[in-house]
Design a protein that fits this description.
The structure holds 2 protein chains of 2 kinds. In chain A, strands 1, 2, 3, 4, 5, 6, 7, 8 and 9 form a 9-stranded mixed sheet that branches. By secondary structure, chain A is an alpha/beta fold. Chain A is built from 9 helices and 9 strands. By secondary structure, chain B is an all-alpha fold. Chain B contains 13 helices and no strands. The longest helix of chain B has about 35 residues. Chains A and B meet through helix 3 and strand 6 of A and helix 1 and helix 12 of B.
Amino acid sequence: MKRLPISACAPLLLVSLMACTGQSNPRVLVSAAASLTDVFAEIESVYEDIHPGVDVILNFGGSSALREQILEGAPVDVFASANRENMDAIVESGLLDEDPVVFARNLLQIAVPVGNPGGVTGLTDLANEELLIGLCAAEVPCGHLARQVLAAADVTAAIDTNEPDVRALLTKIEVGELDAGIVYVTDVASTDGAVDGVDLPEEDNVVAEYPIAVIGESNPERAADFVEFVLSDTGRAILTDHGFSTP
Amino acid sequence: MSAPERSADPRRPPTLLVVLAGVGIAFFAVPLIGLVGRVPWANLPELLSSAVVVDAFRLSMVASVAATAIALVLGIPLAWILARVEFPGRALVRGMVTLPLVLPPVVGGAALLFALGRRGLLGEVVYEATGLLLPFSTWGVIVATTFVAMPFMVITVEGALRGLDLRYEGVASTLGAGRWTVLRKVTLPMIGPSILSGVVLTWARAFGEFGATITFAGNLQGETQTLPLAVFVTLESDRDAAVAVSLLMVVVSLVVLIALRDRWWRSW
């Protein structure tokens, strides 16, 4: 699922740096939040069909880890973050020529293993010490938002693990090692029934906003074209297909 | 794995060799310098005394020492069998034992989860019978670090046993020593330095373990969050703290590697 981890273009290694930059580059390196894994994989393949010869390389991870890589000089052309804060850090660093644009919105949901062995019906069950509960780490957007939701509902979750990104959390729920965790609606949809979703009441939920922007100057036209595609009707249709709402 | 002492050799090395060795040194030194350059010296005491770091340090020490102890108890017999006993499938066993050295630790962690997790092959049986659960517990951290680190003990000790002159042990048994006595009084003392090397390498690998731990045991402060996990998570929110913890790990590991390993190798 993860294509070309960013370490393959690690800033320290001159050789790979040369392999990753270069002139009139037909390659676009896109760093995208882990929760975009499936939808960006589809966007990539449709985009590459329309633009033969262009190679979109996807680098997925927790938004904050991706932010760190970019701030440390990773040769990333496009950044799609799962929240504003991580994008703002990039804006402040002066790496952007144009302001980021919100391209998708997402909601949270409680994910449980198929059949819901823990009998989870809502947020209050996450306070049950008997159950194995996981969240995303507070440092990544899904963890930050999950804590907002819990705080708003006045629930202190009995957390057993803080996973580094939403996919890691989802995997542990999928294999039944955790009884419940808070992820995005789109993550539950993406598993094709490998986990069940328990909806949160609308008043308890929060909306996650996904901004996208062109980073750096190594490949601006190609990168801008890719961003435009994500914002186009085709891009929006793919996003909606995967459960995102679009602005 | 005791290296022969040839440093007294007066021949000068070829220039090319020195240059390449220099590049080799730089390859390891530059990242360290990069790290040290980012250390927030002024806040260091404060950063290193935070509850997160103290908990993670304690847990890392517990897990790495426990993993080393388990590796001693299980790894030395395993090395002995691999070095001395011919049995069908020995190559397969040796390959399996060394596999964690080359496998991405995340794969090891996932394999452990499928085997020992609540829904795992063996884990489910144990959980149903006793309620004991390895994932998301400190025991899980110890299991994950042992899985990744013990191969260092096995290959180090196996190498030493293979290099051992069997005549010493032969003489001991002709003088009437039983097999167990020979093992304790002759074999183990003779491979002592290698065992110590194995201890140091195993401990160091366990101390730095990340991938198998986070995959199998999860990440929770005070329960399963070791220093490497704390670095990984805080790197995303507080870079200064992450760098401070990284420095702590570098210093502790370097001190152990230099002090223990070199001392023994020199006296050997």
